[in-house]
Amino acid sequence: MSLHSETVVTLVLCLGWTVNTQQESLPRPSILADPGLVIPQGNSVKFICTSPSEYDAFRLEKHSTYIMNKKNDFPPKNQAIFQLGPVNEDTAGSYQCLYQKGSMWSPRSETLELKVTNEDVPHTSDPVPGVTSVPTLQSYKVWNGVRMALAGVVFLILGAIIGEALYNQ
């Protein structure tokens, strides 16, 4: 086998592994804090974690360390609520969530920085900065379609390279 053929075979195998990995990875969940990211000491806060599809278990983490799990006892369900309180200065910190489906774990959500204060915080209905809306299942389907189309184009290009290599031999 020539060096050129080995290179092409290696590229095809690597691309196949990458496409397979992308198809099997889970989308990133979203997280938000209710009533917000600044909580008066002694009050409670809810972290609402949402996956784009059904999940088996959700995990809440603080500074990338396990805090608690919620199993999905009533499928189909794509949201878990973690209530913490009454909060104190030890509760403040960086929170993320991730979910499990089958044997796979999703990537961690964005990080929310919870602050606990000694004073009353006015309750506002304005959106909390840094908290995004929950992506819909439809948007993930669109991006998966784009990925598959791109993979198809790459396979066509590799097919053309292999065809040219075979033709030139």
Explain what this protein looks like in three dimensions:
It is a single chain. This protein is an alpha+beta fold and 169 residues long. It folds into two domains: 1-27 and 136-169; 28-134, Immunoglobulins (Immunoglobulin-like, Sandwich), CATH 2.60.40.10. Helices cover 32% and strands 30% of the residues. It is built from two helices and nine strands; from the N terminus they run H-E-E-E-E-E-E-E-E-E-H. The chain has helices at residues 3-24, 137-168; strands spanning 30-34, 38-40, 45-50, 57-62, 65-71, 79-84, 93-101, 104-105, 112-117. Strands 2, 4, 5, 7, 8 and 9 form a six-stranded mixed sheet that branches. A three-stranded antiparallel sheet has the order 1-3-6, with no helix packed on it. A hairpin with a 2-residue loop joins strand 4 (57-62) and strand 5. Helix 1 (3-24) packs antiparallel against helix 2. The protein is elongated and about 75 Å long. The N and C termini lie close together (12 Å).
**Number of continuous helical runs:** 2
- What is the makeup of the main sheet? 6 strands, mixed
- Give the N-to-C terminal Cα separation: 12 Å
CATH domain class name of the largest domain: Mainly Beta
* Overall mean pLDDT: 81
List the domain count as a whole number: 2
The CATH architecture category of the largest domain equals Sandwich
InterPro entries: Ig-like_dom, Ig-like_dom_sf, Ig-like_fold, Ig-like_Receptors_ImmuneReg
Keywords: Disulfide bond, Glycoprotein, Immunoglobulin domain, Membrane, Signal, Transmembrane, Transmembrane helix
Transmembrane segments: 148-167
Pfam families: Ig_2 (PF13895)
